[in-house]
Structure formats: C-alpha cells, structure tokens
Design a protein that fits this description.
The complex is a heterodimer.
Chain A lengths: L20 H23 L2 H23 L4 H6 L2 H12 L6 H14 L14 H12 L1 H4 L9 H10 L14 H10 L9 H7 L1 H17 L6 H20 L7 H6 L3 H8 L10 H21 L6 H18 L10
Helix pairs in contact in A: 1-4, 1-11, 2-4, 2-5, 4-5, 4-6, 5-6, 6-16, 11-14, 12-14, 12-15, 15-16
Chain B lengths: L27 E2 L5 E5 L17 E2 L4 E3 L9 E2 L4 E10 L7 E9 L19 H10 L12 H6 L7 E6 L8 H24 L3 E7 L3 H14 L6 E6 L8 H9 L14 E5 H12 L6 E7 L7 E6 L4 H7 L8 E5 L6 E3 L12 E6 L15 H5 L6 H9 L3 H6 L10 H5 L6 H56 L3 H16 L11
Helix pairs in contact in B: 3-4, 3-6, 9-12
C-alpha cells in the first residue's frame, strides 16, 4: 500500500509551536486544584483519598490493558490521560463512598471506557463519565450520600474501608440543593430557597467558583477549547432565564444552575475532553449548547438530581454526526 | 501596514523569521563548479528528451534537453564543457527518488552561445512573449517550478489581474528579499512588460510586512520610473505564514478564492514570483536563457549564510563550501524552508530551478515519538485551506481512501502548519503525501484497468463481428448456390444430374456433397 519511494517524515529539524500532550494533561490536573481546594474546604480532605485510590487503580488498569494488548505501556502511562480520568472520577464520587466504589468505577472507566476502543484518542465517550454513570446506575445509594458537617476520623475510615450495604456514615447526609429542586418541581411545590445564594450555603457555590477559576486559566492558555464551555454555560443560562422568567417561584434563577452540582467541573474539564467532543468549530458550539440544554432538562424534569454525566455522554454520542454535518467549507469549494 | 488588503486567509501561523541570518550581505555570484548535473525529470513526471550525447562539447546556453512543448521547457547548459555521462542521481524533490541526469565537466572557459535574438520591448505580441518565456526555459522560481508559459495559458478567462509575489513567508528564505533590494528595477520593468502584454487592469506587487528594505526599494524605483509605473500598486501583506502561497495571497489582495482544482488564471488572475518576473524581463531585454538563479544558503549549520547567484546544476556541497563550509559534520540539509522544504541526505544533489534555499541545521535532540491524536483541533485552527487535518489523518490511517478524497485531501497545500502545532507530534503532512500517492497510484491502476477492459471488450466485439461477417458470407454463398444465381452453374448441375441418372445412381444429397 505505502509507496516505498517517499522519504520518511523529517521531524528532527521541524519547528515546534505546541504544548505536548503530557504537558496538557498535567496542566489540566493543575487547573483542577482551585476546585479541589474548595472541595476540601467544605467536605474535608477525604476527596484526596478517593483521587488517590482512583489514580492507583487507573494506572494499574491502564498498564495491564496495554500489556495485554501488546503495546508499550510506559509512554501511554506517561501521557497523563489516565491520571486525568482518575481525578475527574475521584472528584465526582461522594468523598466518603466505600473504596470499592471508586475502584470499580475507575476500572470501568479505563477498561470499558477507553482501552476496549484502542486507548487514548479512540474512545467515543468520556471515560470518566462512563465510569461515573455505571456507578450511579448500579449503586445509587452510595453515589448520592454526600455527608456534611464535621465527621470524626474513625468514622471516615470505617466508611471508606468497611463501607457496605448496611453502613451509613455517622454524619447526617443532607439533600443537596439540586435534590431539593427536583423534588420541589416533582411535588409541584414552590422553592423558598432555590436561588444563587443558596448554592453558597452548602459549599457547591465555592466549589463551582473554584473550577471556574481553574477552567478559565486552561482556556486562557488555550489548553481547553473556549467554545464548548461558553456555549454550554450560555445554553444553561438561557434555558434557566426563560423558565425563571415564566415562573420564578418554581424555576430557580440561572445563578442557581451555574453554581450548583457539577456545572463548572463539567463545563471546563469534562465537556472539553477533545477526544470525545466534536472537533469542528461549529460542531463544538452545538456540542456545548447541547450539553447545556440537556443538563437543564435532566436537572429539572429528569430522574436524577444532576445531569452533567448523562448530558456529556449523550452529546459524545452525537459528536461524529455533528462533525459530519458541520465540516467547514474548504478553501476554493462552494459548499 | 495592511493598507490595500481586501481580504484574509484562514488559519496560518506567525513564525520566527530567522531572515537576518542571510539577508545582511549582498548577493554574491557563486563560483564555477567542476561538474554540473542536470536532472531530466520535468514537473509532469516525464523525462525531458535528450539533445546531447556523451562526449559532446557544449557552451553556456547550449540546449541539453527538453523544449518540445510548453510543459517541457528547455534545459540549457550553464557553462561550457564536455558531456561526461548520463547518470542516475537523487532528485531534489519532496517525493524523492532518483533519475537520469546529464553530467557536464566544465572546462573553466565559460564560453557562451550568443543570447536569444533581442525582442523589441514595445512591439511584441502576447504570443511572441509567451514563445520567448518558453524558449528561455523560464519556470516559476518561487519553488514550484511550474512552466511559466503553461501557467499563463491554463485559464480560459482573460487575465485582468497580475500579482507579482514577493511575499516570502517561510522562515530563513531571503532570496526574493535580496532580489527586490538589489534588482527592484528588473522586477518593476518586468511587471510593466507583462501587464502591458496581458492588458490587465489591476497590477499588484506584494511583499511581506517584515521586508521593509525590499518595500522601500520597490517604492523608490516606482517613483524613479514615473508615470509608466503609476498603475502598479505595491502592497504589504502581514507576515503570517503561508501568506506567500498564491492561494493565500489572492484572497488577501482580491477578496476571491481560487476554486478547487483550478489555477488562478481560471478566475482571470496571474500570480508570478518576483524572480520569475525578473527572469522574463532579462530574457526579453537581454535575450538571457534561464541558467542561474538566486539561492539562499542559510541555517545554523553553515558558517557564513548568504545569498548566492548560482548556476543551475551546481552541486549543493560546492555552494556550502562557498559559504565557509559546515559548522559541524553532524548536520541536516533541507531544500527549501523549514516548513515546506524537504530533507536531503547527500550534498551531491544539484541545484535545479526549483531550489530556492539550502537550509543547513545542526541536528537537534531525538525525534519525538508520535502519540495518539487526541482530536484537540489545533490543526483545524491553523489550516489555511480550512480542512480538518485530524479527520483526514484518521481516514488516511484507516486507509479509507474515498473518505480522504471527500475531505478534500488534494486541496492540502502541504504547508506544514498542522505539523508544528500538533501536541502529539504527528507528521500529518507526511501522512497526507502518502495518502495522495496511494490515491494517485490507485487512480492510475484504475485507468489502466479501464483501458485494459476497453481493449478486451473491443477485441471481443471485433471477434464477434468477424464471426458474424463470416457466417453471413457463408450463408450468402450457400443461398446463392441453391438459388442458382448463375445460369451456367444451373446448367452444369443439370448436366451432372442427367449423368448420374443415366448411370442409375442415386442422386447425391446436398449434405453429402
């Protein structure tokens, strides 16, 4: 197939105006730090245990899969993509979820979300969201227990190490604002406390601001596409505005949606995963907006309190179609 | 700075120029090498027909090959000497390969033939100018080496806009810059000559904004030439690679895109490199044949980078010696700039009309290993053709030839912007070149197959026809026998029947006979 008279590519003297993939991944993890700090501030440092467990599992799973596939393991481990997946998953599960939750989720993410398709660059879905969704559907109770308040150290370790079906952390698990919203709409009640100010009471507001800050830094450094977060947040804000304007008593203001749940983490760190996103400029606008709309719809009328993971997976599914229909007009072509 | 621009082009990159390495000293004539090498392969892939044999003594200006038609401009000896051999040599071409070359051993006398008959610059016709461009062996000197006369004739539309391209956008290359600084007069007069002949309404000379001296020289010369040069507009374009590609330059200057698969002449625009225009001027006014060109020898791997006036056929190594030799023996040579140039391993290769630059670099670090494409889209943002390099790469890897064609593979100008921004260090252009070659090979195979089928079918039809002809002829013969067309035969048959009857023999059946 390959004509033999073409000289090999010459890259030793070629210019480099790029950030290597590895640096991109390391920067993504660095950008997560402001959000992680906010999460630690409000939920304790236990989130780091989840991230650590996820990282160990991710690297082991990735290496095993690569060895089984007969591929060089080291370069792929060094590209940092498995670490990013592990961190996203570690930050998404409740910080006191039992250890096998995060381990199982990470295994699903790396093996079923990524390696079965051929590894980095070939996965149609965001691996972290594949893992998260499997966990959410399979273990809904463990996945929605977000503890609040002070938790004694021994309780933390009991929760993470022994945690099982009949274990409940000592601290009171409280319904998140998003839970309240869904229940409220479902019960046709008015929401006394669903506004942007309520988000800061439970800490979600600060966490979202943290991720927004890190995300903006990524976008500024051109390591994340700016169109996707902009259209995602734009669509979410737009939908929230319309419904809030129509019935302010039942539909909270846009600020509530922007500052609650996984809005900002999703906008800058999950939706922007280039591998599973649309790749054309116009495609990315539609892709981002689609996620924003789906997040609003799932949060407001769906069966789950937050919808970022489902929204991202659904739009991952449509990315190839978007790419096909939004191909830019090539130079010198009329269409 | 960008006054006079009516449009822009998509993508592109602002690159560090490294121009001052080679543009600080004037153009210097290179010496006469002991051997001159002339590859025979022309741009259309065919070999130029030989016009000399081994042992012939040639003079500067002797025709050694080619000149049969417009796509095969003549190749002239660039000094006097003896034809020593026809040898295979590597070609200075991005697609590599080796091909037959004429080797001339110079005698140091440098005797030349008289120049081509002089033309009266005021009275020539477009046809005579075209003929002269062809006769003088002029091809595009910007690097593509497309035969100038053929380029001009390609479009059906009348040429209304002449663009003289001095926008030298690739890093390191300064041969057009130096030409404009030193010979702006030739370029402007050549432009006037061409525009008068083409009768075009818009005449533009473009330089990049990082060539202020060349721009100044053009403006000064234009002022000196007075009213006759008044129609020529000198435009500065932003120094954003690949602004000097004609498909990028044309939308900036005219607001129009060149339709895919056509040349600018199809929309009434003729784009010529400044050095080509100067060569046309010299061929008309002085009867010069194209047997030399300006070559930039540059890079950190050569001691004194500079621009040389080089005789075609000069081996690269000779020129590098003229520039003080290599800095270290561990070096890499590229013909052309760092973006679109192509590496060569040996310095025995000759300078041809397409070689504008010899870039010598000291080898740097290990080659980064390509990593999987993460679809980041950096390549999409810089592609001046608005392709999706990442998708093209995906399809090329999967050997989905039709999909690559649907993604406009053949519109890729191989500028290399996608290569330098790829975070995974993928050699995209290399993949695209390979895919193009595969596509071309398959197309040729298909054409051959179609041709073979056509021949087979024609042969079958012919055989069928011949058989039918034979059958009808036999039928006719038979029926003519039975119906008895001729009375004499009837008589003979009658006689035979009577004979048989008289001998009491049974009548012979027709089948038995």
């Amino acid at each position: 197939m390959t004509p033999d008279f073409l000289p090999p590519p010459d890259s030793s003297s070629r210019l480099m105006l790029t950030t290597p993939t590895k640096t991109v991944m390391v920067s993504v993890i660095m950008a997560l730090m402001t959000g992680i700090m906010a999460q630690i501030w409000h939920g304790g440092p236990w989130v780091l245990i989840q991230c650590g467990l996820a990282a160990i599992t991710a690297l082991t799973a990735e290496a095993t899969a690569l060895i089984l596939r007969g591929r060089p393991a080291l370069p792929a481990l060094m590209d940092g993509s498995a670490m990013v997946t592990a961190f996203l998953l570690g930050l998404s599960v409740p910080c006191l979820a039992p250890w096998w939750i995060i381990t199982l989720g990470t295994l699903f993410a790396i093996l079923l979300g990524k390696q079965v398709y051929g590894g980095l660059g070939h996965n149609p879905f965001n691996p972290a969201m594949v893992g998260y969704t499997i966990l959410l559907i399979s273990f809904p109770r463990q996945m929605t227990d977000w503890p609040v308040g002070h938790i004694p150290l021994d309780a933390v370790f009991r929760a993470i190490l022994q945690g099982g079906e009949n274990f409940r952390p000592d601290a009171v698990a409280m319904a998140t604002p998003l839970d309240a919203l869904r229940t409220g709409i479902f019960m046709r009640q008015t929401l006394p406390e669903a506004s942007w100010t309520s988000a800061f009471v439970q800490g979600d507001g600060w966490i979202n601001l943290g991720y927004l800050l890190g995300g903006l830094w990524l976008v500024k450094r051109k390591l994340a596409d700016w169109r996707i977060p902009l259209s995602y947040l734009g669509a979410l804000t737009g939908f929230a505005l319309i419904f809030h304007w129509a019935d302010a008593a039942r539909y909270p203001d846009p600020g509530f949606h922007l500052l609650n749940g996984a809005t900002m983490l999703g906008a800058f760190f999950i939706a922007t995963d280039p591998v599973s996103a649309a790749t054309t400029p116009r495609g990315r606008w539609i892709y981002g907006a689609g996620i924003g709309v789906l997040v609003y719809v799932i949060r407001t009328w769906g069966g789950y309190p937050d919808g970022v993971a489902f929204a991202v997976l659904l739009m991952n599914l449509s990315a190839p179609t978007l790419d096909h229909f939004t191909r830019p007009r090539a130079y010198g072509h009329s269409r | 700075m960008s006054a006079g621009l009516v449009g822009s082009f998509p993508g592109g990159l602002v690159l560090e120029g490294h121009k001052s390495l080679s543009n600080q000293t004037p153009i210097r004539p290179a010496g006469l090498p002991a051997r001159l090498i002339f590859p025979l392969r022309q741009r259309n892939g065919e070999d130029a027909p030989l016009r000399v044999s081994v042992g012939d003594h040639v003079l500067r200006g002797s025709l050694i090959a080619g000149g049969t038609h417009l796509m095969d401009p003549p190749i002239y000896a660039s000094s006097s000497g003896q034809v020593m051999a026809f040898e295979d040599h590597d070609l200075p071409h991005p697609y590599g390969g080796s091909n037959r070359c004429v080797v001339i051993e110079t005698d140091g006398q440098d005797e030349s033939l008289p120049p081509l008959p002089l033309m009266d610059a005021e009275t020539y016709s477009p046809e005579s100018l075209l003929q002269r461009i062809h006769e003088a062996g002029i091809v595009g000197l910007g690097g593509a080496a497309f035969p100038t006369a053929a380029k001009w004739l390609k479009g059906e539309a009348a040429i209304h806009t002449l663009i003289v391209n001095g926008a030298e956008c690739e890093p390191y290359i300064t041969c057009d810059d130096l030409l404009l600084r030193e010979r702006a007069d030739e370029v402007l007069r050549g432009t006037m000559l061409l525009s008068r002949c083409l009768d075009c309404s818009t005449i533009l000379i473009a330089v990049e904004s990082d060539m202020p001296e060349a721009h100044r020289a053009l403006l000064d010369t234009k002022t000196a030439l007075g009213a006759q040069a008044a129609a020529i507009k000198i435009v500065q374009v932003p120094a954003r690679y690949p602004a000097g590609g004609e498909r990028q330059l044309i939308p900036m200057l005219t607001g129009r895109e060149v339709p895919s698969g056509t040349v600018p002449a199809a929309i009434g625009i003729l784009c010529q490199n400044v050095a080509t225009v100067a060569a046309i001027y010299r061929s008309v006014i002085w009867g010069e044949r194209l047997d030399s060109r300006i070559v930039t020898v540059t890079g950190d791997g050569v001691k004194t980078p500079q621009n040389l006036e080089v005789r075609l056929g000069t081996p690269l190594g000779f020129l590098i010696e003229q520039c003080g030799d290599y800095v270290t023996p561990d070096r890499q040579i590229k013909l052309g700039g760092p973006m679109m140039g192509h590496p060569v391993t040996r310095d025995t290769l000759p300078v041809t009309r397409s070689v504008n630059t010899i870039l010598v670099t000291t080898t740097v670090g290990p080659t980064p290993t390509p990593q999987p494409c993460i679809r980041c889209g950096a390549c999409v943002d810089v592609c001046p053709t608005r392709l999706l390099p990442q998708q093209l790469y995906w399809h090329a890897q999967a050997r989905q030839l039709q999909a690559t064609l649907d993604q406009h593979l053949f519109d890729c100008i191989e500028c290399g912007c996608c290569d330098v921004v790829c975070p995974s260090h993928i050699s995209l252009v290399h993949e695209f070149r390979q895919a193009k070659q595969t596509a071309l090979a398959r197309q040729q195979a298909n054409e051959r197959a179609a041709h073979a089928r056509q021949r087979f079918e024609a042969r079958q039809a012919r055989k069928l026809r011949e058989q039918q002809d034979r059958e009808t002829a036999a039928q006719q013969r038979k029926s003519s026998l039975s119906q008895g067309a001729s009375p004499k035969i009837q008589e003979a048959l009658e006689r035979a029947r009577q004979k048989r009857a008289s001998r009491h023999l049974p009548p012979a059946s027709e089948d038995a006979s």
